[in-house]
Structure formats: C-alpha cells, structure tokens
Fold Tyrosine-protein kinase CpsD.
Amino acid sequence: MALFRKKRGTNETMKKGAQLITVADPKSPVSEQIRIVRTNINFMAVDHDIKTMAFTSANISEGKSTVTVNVAVTYAQAGRKTLLIDGDLRRPTLHSTFNMSNQRGLTSVLTSDAKEIDLDDVIQDSGVDNLSILTSGPIPPNPAELIGSKRMQTFIELVRDHYDVVIIDLAPVLAVSDTQELASHLDGVVLVVRQGVTKKAAIKRSVEMLKFAKVRILGYVMNDISSSNAGYGYGYGYGYGYGYGYGEEKKKSFWDRFRS
Ligand SMILES: Nc1ncnc2c1ncn2[C@@H]1O[C@H](COP(=O)(O)OP(=O)(O)OP(=O)(O)O)[C@@H](O)[C@H]1O
Ligand SMILES: [Mg+2]
C-alpha cells in the first residue's frame, strides 16, 4: 500500500497550454456554449458593472484554465477590450497556451519597487484581436502572498481603467487562501465545477469560503467531459446556473443547493 496517495491532477495544460477551441473553431457547439457562459455573466451585470472577474474551482485540474481562456476569447471576439491575467502562480498556463515568453509578467509587477508601472512592459499581445495577456511571470517562493497583496489590488484597479474586461485565472479556493482575498476585491467570481469529479462537499465548502470572504459569486460553469461534442477527441459541456433570479427555474436547482 502506498503511504502517500498521488495528488489527482494533470500537468498537461501547464506544459502544452489550454485548448483554444474558441479560436480554432469559433462556430463549434463548444464555442457556442462558451459564448452562452459569457452571455450569462453579462446578465449578472444588469445591476452591477462587472469589469473585473476571476474563475476559480474547488481543487486543481477541474478545467479552470481551459474555461477561463476560452471565455476571455469570446469577450474579445465580441469587441470588448479584454485583459487576461494568469493569477494561478502555482500552476501557470497562459504563456504555454499562447506560446509566449514568461520572463516578465504578473510577478514582475508585484515584486517591483517602481512607483509607476508601464503596462506595455509586461502585457503582451495574444494574436487574437482585442485580447491582451499578462502571463504569471517567474514563480517566486511565496506565490500566494503576492496574489493577496495590496499591490495586486492596486494593480487591478489600474488595469480596470484601461480595459473593458479584466479576467483572472485564479488558483483553487480550497488550495490557496489568497484566492479569497483577491476575489473579494473583484466584481465577481465564477466557480468551475468538473462534472462527476468535483465532490459536492468540496463545492459547498468553496462556496462557503467565498461567501465568508464576501466574494460575489456570479455562478458556476459545469465542465462536463462526458458530453462529447468538441470533435477534438474529448468532449466539453458547459452548464451555467444562477441563484439570482435569472434563467429557468430548473437551471437554478443545482446552484441553489450550494448557495443556501
Ligand atoms: N471539458 C473537458 N474535456 C476534456 N478534458 C478537459 C476538459 N476541460 C479540461 N480538460 C483537461 O483537463 C486538464 C485540466 O484542465 P485545466 O488545466 O484547464 O484545469 P485547471 O483547473 O486550470 O487545472 P490546474 O489546477 O492545473 O490549474 C487538462 O489536461 C485539460 O486539457
Ligand atoms: Mg489552471
């Protein structure tokens, strides 16, 4: 019997990057589902402006980076000037996804002593119209502390004024406490749930922790690899549900179980 159980998860996206379905095949059903996610987030913006948002999950490898990057692409494709930030300093992927340098990035901003930040020094062009990228930057020994820092909040306030939408890929709630800290300073957070993998107790705990930190939860994305329609050898499926009075009643039931 093994003394230590191997940590569930895969490093595939860290090495090869996430699948950019919305770029490769914008007309596919998967891309359409991603656009529905974006539309539903926009519904939440009726009463409150949502300019800064993050995607997180309960645990690692639940599909956060894949969902986040594709949602960001659909915002850009809709003509919104979008900044996508790799805020998962433990398992960064954005530089691999866009095949770009990670010598400078978010950590360069957060560890710099400079009073003023020149955004052009750190933000890169993704190659997708309207989509700019801030990679993680070199990973320091104390990655979590940086994400929860005051400097990070100040930086988000700065980029907020330069972009229509700022989207952050954040480390899992149950793994990194600073996720809550930063999330509470954003306009909202979307929880990515992996169908058949994420345990109900983990979702409930994540929601409790986010609510405790006064994070505005915008909804969840159900990442369902069993409903095959991607045409890439594996399937994606996204369900989106809200507990704020939007959408059909039956769509709310899953979400409401965890919100109450
Ligand atoms: N719907 C899906 N169908 C099949 N595979 C998927 C799906 N979503 C994600 N994956 C795969 O699952 C793995 C983890 O996905 P991803 O890296 O997006 O998750 P993550 O939550 O960001 O993980 P991490 O904790 O490493 O940040 C990757 O190999 C990715 O290609
Ligand atoms: Mg990730």
Notes: DSSP finds twelve helices and eight strands in the chain. Residues 9-10, 12-13, 18-19, 57, 60-66, 88, 91, 223, 225, 234-236 surround adenosine-5'-triphosphate (ligand 1) (CB under 6 Å).
